[in-house]
RNA sequence: GCCGGGGUGGCGGAACUGGUAGACGCGCCGGACUCAAAAUCCGGUUGCCGAAAGGCAGUGCGGGUUCGAUUCCCGCUCCCGGCACCA
């Protein structure tokens, strides 16, 4: 009588065993160090499927490396500051600190139930003063070095709540709570000079060969290095400076456009109420680039004239809403002939459009209809006076040289990347350690007074930062002169917190330094895993911060993350009902019963609670707004952690989005039951640990070949390719073969023992609890994670014959068995013994025969 | 709008360097076991034609390169991620 698989009993017992043997500690064990890091979670309340997936990937990689004999660090912490805690506080009246810490408690318990080999002694939370004091300390160093500086920046302003809004809180140009049209407002903020590092951040992308190409491309485009020219246009007594990537088109500049915030626009508006009104109109709406880039292009003539630096022509100066103050100089020379946005604007306002570069592919230029060819770099200059006939690149150089001669411009490199504004007008964040003194100005908090501790009992109400009304925090003597002064109430962008947490994990207990020598021992992170949505901002800031810490002499690494895996999103079906006013109520998929037709399509969906129908709303990213988050906890309770882990690794490759499916979880559960039963039935006949078979019959030899092919494939999939879905598929496939195999002698039983020992080790990174239990059932001592990774026996891979596919004109017509390495003529001869092949070849002339050795033969006839 | 990625059976996906399209799993169909059901086990399952052998079509759409294209190239389309204050 064999035991059945009961994860509810098995899993906690196995976790106790791990804990008793200290298996999850990074410092335990020997071997090379391997730092496996997952993006730490925001403690939003409950673990969601995205977390589950992220940490399972990380755990599979960690355990795989542990089995390779490495000393693995897999830490965990909490990205604990941020907006959702303030929103929860407004909704429930609970201070963000309490809400956050309660969530951490709950989520830590959930993570522990999933059996992740996390070194919990290194746990950290960014809202703890012991962590954020080092944000403050380092900020002061950056201030000393001139990397941190103060200037104004544009924010979304809700005129009713009198508060700054995050981009997320601006919906269709209106405040999310008040519905009031949002305004742009200029306020003073602290910035970090990330642009000083733009070149290095761009160039060292080339060294990151363990990163996905798409992430490197996105970062390179974000940094956006472009070679061009800075050109000065005289405008009365002022000068309008512009940057252009196409100085070769200078002779086609027909007007100038400046941002609404540009000083010249302001100046021109003083005597021009119509223009002032237009500029005010430009001040409405959100500040996000997506909003600005999609809004209708609008502009107004300022009446000012700029002088073309070469022709001396007067160009009208317009204010245009598509010119960004934050990019370049806040002004452009408009070349409608060769820039799509300028073209569209010129067409709308009847401004001249002039072709100055011929089309590279020839063809007619039509100034009523834009074609993408007009912006292509190529062709030669036309309508450009003495520059006519030069190629576009010769024209580029000649015009820049001419501008330099006249003192009106020079070649320049421009980055799209802007300096990083880190000030947030919010309570639940790391206080910026500055004191404002009426006499001394902005005074840095002295190091010995750090940390500036955030009061934790405040409850924000939506109308601004409660720190502004908290006298205990606000009032403090000036460190310089001792006079009454006020603390800065802005807090830091939470991206600051997440830009160096991976360094703190290496020495979280150090209360005298930000990091110590242990950082250099563990860094760089060997494997980083996180959502693709972080491909640009977080990863760029973390790279930047690492370089800042390097330049401060705190660490030696240039780049923090050697290898990066960007996991896809977790998606789920959405369901809703619409009321008369068109307002949608979203229902959680777990509460909806779906009837499917015979072919698998959805017939009907009803809410289980009332049996009434709900509408399917499509498959979307699991999110609160659509109420389609599936709680992993319920699944863990039903099936155990191993089943949920197995499904989430099996359902899709890690980089792709994953559609949640309860039915798929059932499949994973069935496989584990079969695996358990298979091992048990072998064990029931007696275990034979450590012995290997020799003399095997043909069927057994084939099974052993398949076993060692599987070991090779799974190792490659888990290590090099990181396609855990195909690794699991290969294990399942082999198990199917193994369970069909019947042992008829001692050697075959030894093979079955070898096979189960190998299967258990191959699956161990994915389903660690079950694997650990089965390892012991197979008569092994100690932990499966200390038992090593199975080795491929090369001699088992040799086969007597291979199957070669035979094609005629590219269509499969047969298969032949030949000796490995058989040459073209002998494979062709074998193929001509196949009736079906002969039928397609006879009566025709063989024109060509192509052999892909051991795989395919294509006979081309005609 | 700009940058990046994706689209393959009823569904999730596989096919790694241009070489058998659909591995593995789900679902469905049939069968075994059972008084019955569940669980489990066995078989089938891209579509069309065919009793079968086999044939034809087929990887979002339109074209191209090649003996051979899911894979490479050109054009389109739809979906997803990011766009600097969501994290």
Keywords:
about 850 residues; alpha+beta; four-stranded antiparallel beta sheet; 35 strands; globular; RNA-binding
Structure overview:
- By secondary structure, the chain is of the alpha+beta class.
- It contains 26 helices and 35 strands.
- It has a four-stranded parallel sheet with strand order 2-1-24-25, covered by helices on one side.
- Helix 17 (537-551) links the parallel strand 24 (525-531) and strand 25.
- Helix 3 packs across helix 4, helix 21 (698-721) packs antiparallel against helix 22 (724-740) and helix 21 (698-721) packs parallel to helix 23.
- It binds one RNA strand of 87 nucleotides through helix 7, helix 10, strand 17, strand 18 and helix 17.
Total number of helical segments? 26
Low-confidence stretches: 597-602
Strand order of the largest sheet: 2-1-24-25
Q: Which structural class should the secondary elements be placed in? A: alpha+beta
Report the strand count: 35
Range of strand content? 15-25%
Q: Calculate the mean pLDDT score and round it.
A: 92
List the helices and strands and how they pair.
Elements: H1 7-20, E1 33-38, H2 49-67, E2 71-73, E3 77-78, H3 83-92, H4 96-113, E4 124-125, H5 129-145, E5 148-158, E6 163-165, E7 170-171, E8 174-175, E9 183-192, H6 198-203, H7 213-223, E10 225-235, E11 238-244, E12 255-258, H8 263-269, H9 273-282, H10 289-294, E13 299-307, E14 314-320, E15 331-334, H11 340-349, H12 392-406, E16 409-415, E17 420-421, E18 423-424, E19 434-437, E20 441-444, H13 471-474, E21 475-477, E22 484-487, E23 491-492, H14 494-497, H15 501-504, H16 517-522, E24 525-531, H17 537-551, E25 561-567, E26 570-578, E27 584-587, E28 592-596, E29 602-607, E30 615-621, H18 632-639, H19 641-650, E31 658-659, H20 662-684, H21 698-721, H22 724-740, H23 746-763, H24 768-777, E32 802-808, E33 811-818, H25 824-831, H26 835-841, E34 846-852, E35 856-861
Parallel strand pairs: 1-2, 1-24, 3-4, 12-14, 24-25, 26-31, 32-35
Antiparallel strand pairs: 5-6, 5-9, 7-8, 9-17, 10-11, 10-16, 12-15, 13-14, 18-23, 19-20, 19-22, 21-22, 26-27, 26-30, 28-29, 32-33, 34-35
Helix pairs in contact: 1-24, 3-4, 8-9, 18-19, 19-20, 21-22, 21-23, 22-23, 23-24
The structure holds one RNA strand of 87 nucleotides.
